[in-house]
Amino acid sequence: MTEKTRNAPPRAGALMEALRGLGYSTAAALADIVDNSISAGAGEVRIAFTWNGADSRITVLDDGRGMSESELEVAMRLGGKSPLDLRAPDDLGRFGMGLKTASFSQCRRLTVASRKDGGSIACLRWDLDEIAARTDDAWVLFENPAKGSEHHLDLLHGTGRGTLVLWEVPDRIVTAGYTANDFADLIDNVETRLAMVFHRMIQGPRPRFKLFLNGRAVVPWDPFMSGHPAKPWNSPVARADAAFGSVEVECHVLPHRDRLSSDEHVYAGGPEGWTAQQGFYVYRNQRLLLAGGWLGLGQGRAWNREEAHRLARIRLDIPNSADSEWKIDIRKSTARPPVSLRPWLTKLAEDTRERARRVFAFRGAPAPGPGGSPIEQAWRTDHSRSGVRYRIDEKHPAVSAVIEGSGPMLPMVKAMLRVIEETVPVQRIWLDTAENKETPRTGFAGEPPETVIEVLNTLFEDMIGRRGMSHEAAKRSLAATDPFQNYPDIVAALPDDPKNVGE
Predict the structure, then answer these.
(1) What pLDDT, on the 0 to 100 scale, is given for residue 500?
(2) Cβ neighbours of residue 5 under 8 Å, at least 6 residues apart?
(3) Quick one: pLDDT band at residue 363, thresholds 50, 70, 90?
(4) Residues of the chain with CATH 3.30.565.10
(5) Sequence-ordered strand ranges (E) for 254-366
(6) Is 111 within 8 Å of 149 (Cβ atoms)?
(7) What is the maximal distance between C-alpha atoms in the chain?
C-alpha cells in the first residue's frame, strides 16, 4: 500500500517575513556577506554606506571569482546548499542561508550582481514588497535591479570579475526618527565589530584580504594585545584531537590598566568593555564566531563574567567540520563545546582565570622585584575558617616608619590602623566597581609626578636618617615597594641628599 503524502511548500511571503526575525545586528549581517566574499577568494572587500533617509543603501563589493548566472541562482535560493554537504576546509558558510537571512534582517530588497572571468553581469533580486503584493504567494526571484537602481551596478563595470551585494529599503535600520547622525554611529559600530571579527585575516604584512568601509581601510582589533611589552603571560598552544578534527587553544592574560596608557586601556577594552570581553574567543578558519564568555563552563555552576577575571582571554580555533558538534547557529554567534572537550577546556580556563585574578588583585605587579625580591604590599590578605580579612602590613616602609617613630603614641597609632582595617569599605568598592565597570584608581594613577616625589622624599629621608640605610639600599627597597615599583625612574633619580628631591 502506497503511503499517502501531501506537498506542503511554505508560503513565500510569510516565511520570508519570519526569517527577518533571526536577530542579526547590522554588523553581524555584513560579516555574513563578507564571509561569502572571502570564500570566493576576494583580495579586497569594499563596504559602502550611503545615507538618503528611507532610501539609504548599503553595498558590498568584492573582487572574488564571481558567479555565472546558474551559480548566482543557486546562491540566491533559500537552502541552496545543505549544511550536510562536504565543504572546502576554508569555506566560511554552512547553512546556505546566510546571504539571504542576513540581508532580509536589514532590508526589504536584496540585489546581487556578479561577473565571472570577464563575462557578462548576472543579476538577481529578492523584493519582499513585490512578493507580498502578489496573490499567488509564489517564490519569485526577479532578474535585474529594481527600476531606478540600475546605476548601482556601475561598480562592477570595468572589473574583470567580482560580486556586488546591494541592500535597499533598509526598514530595519532606518526606522521612525532615525537621523543621519544615527547612521554615522551605525557605521562606527560596524567598523569596530568587523575589525574584531576579521582581525586575524586583515592584520600583518600579508593579510588574507583587505577590508574597506566607506573607502577607509578597517584597522584590525587584536583582543590578545599580541606583542605588547607589558603583557604578563600567554600559554603555549594546546591541541586536542576529536572525531571532527583538531582544536587549538592559546590562553592569554592581558596587562593590568596600571601598565597601559589611557588610550591603550580604552582601545584594548573592545566593543563591549573589559568585563564583557573576557573569556573564550572562538574562531573557525581564523574568522571570529564568538567574542568573550565562558561557554557555559565552570565547576558546579557556569562561570559568569566577573571583574576579577577581566584580563583573561582565550583563543580557541575549531575546524569548519566541527559546526554540528559545537552547535554553531545560523548567525555564527553561539557555540557550545562538545561534552568530550569540556573537562580539558575547563582546566585550561581555570588556570587562566586564576592567573588573571592574581594580576588583577596585585594591580599588575605580581612579579618579583629587583634581584627576585618580593614586592612589599601595604595590605595583606588573611584567610581563616571564619572568612577573609584585610590587614595593613606593618612591614611596609611607610607603615613601619610611623610605628617605629611613634614613641608614646604607639597605642594610638595601633588603634588607628585597626580601625582602618575594620572599616575597609569592601561592599562600597565592589558596588562602585560593578556600576562603573572600572576598578577605583590607586597607585597614584592620574596623579602628577610631584605627588609621588613628595611621598618618596619623606620615606627616603626616614630610611637614610632614622634607619641608617645607605642610599642604594634605600632605593632598592623603595623599588620593591608597592606602589613605587611602578615609578622606577623616579626612584632611581632620588638624590643622595633627600632634602634636594624635586629641585
Answers:
(1) 52
(2) none
(3) low
(4) 12-217
(5) 279-284, 287-291, 312-318
(6) yes
(7) 108
Q: How far apart are CA 323 and CA 132, in angstroms?
A: 34
Q: Are 62 and 162 in contact (CB under 8 A)?
A: yes
State the average pLDDT over residues 228-242.
95
Q: Is 88 helix (H, G, I), strand (E, B) or coil?
A: coil
Contact 475, 494 (CB under 8 A): yes
pLDDT tens for residues 118-135? 889 999 999 999 999 988
List, as own/partner pairs, every contact residues 333-342 make where C-beta atoms lie below 8 angstroms and the sequence separation is at least 24, other chains included: 333/28, 333/289, 333/290, 334/290, 335/282, 335/289, 335/290, 335/295, 336/295, 336/296, 337/295, 337/296, 337/297, 338/242, 340/242, 341/240, 341/242, 341/247, 342/297
- What is the per-residue burial (b if ≥16 Cβ within 10 Å, else e) of 31-69? bbbbbbbbbbebeebbbbbebeeeebbbbbbbbbbbbee
Query: Rounded to whole angstroms, what are the CA distances from 403 to 34, 461, 473?
Result: 66, 16, 21
Contact (CB, 8 A) for 79 and 98: no
Q: How far apart are CA 307 and CA 438, in angstroms?
A: 8
> Half-sphere exposure of 255 toward its Cβ, with a 13 Å CA cutoff?
18
Superfamily of domain 12-217, CATH level 4? Histidine kinase-like ATPase, C-terminal domain (3.30.565.10)
Give the H/E segment covering residue 114.
strand 109-115
- Position 501 pLDDT exceeds 50: no
Q: For the whole model, what pTM was predicted?
A: 0.79
H/E stretch holding 382 reads strand 379-384
Q: Amino acid letter at 422?
A: E
Mean pLDDT of 468-479: 90
| Whole-angstrom distance, CA of residue 458 vs CA of residue 49 | 60
Q: What is the DSSP string of 184-249?
A: HHHHHHHHHHHHHHTHHHH-SSS-S-EEEETTEEPPP--TT-TT-TT--EEPPPEEEEETTEEEEE
Instruction: Pick the closest to residue 130 from 176, 168, 174 (CA basis).
Output: 168
Q: Of residues 40 and 364, which shows the higher confidence score? A: 40
CA–CA separation, 297 and 304 (whole Å):
9
Q: Which amino acid is at 318?
A: I
Is the peptide bond between 483 and the residue preceding it cis, with omega within 30 degrees of 0? yes
**Cell for 19?**
526569517
Q: What is the spatial distance between Cα 19 and Cα 10, in angstroms, rounded to a whole number?
A: 12
Which residue in this structure is represented by grid cell 554552512?
94
Averaged over 187-205, what is the pLDDT? 97
Task: Give the range among 90-94, 207-211, 313-317, 425-429 with minimum mean pLDDT.
Answer: 90-94
The upper half-sphere exposure of residue 367, i.e. CA atoms within 13 Å in the direction of its Cβ, equals 14
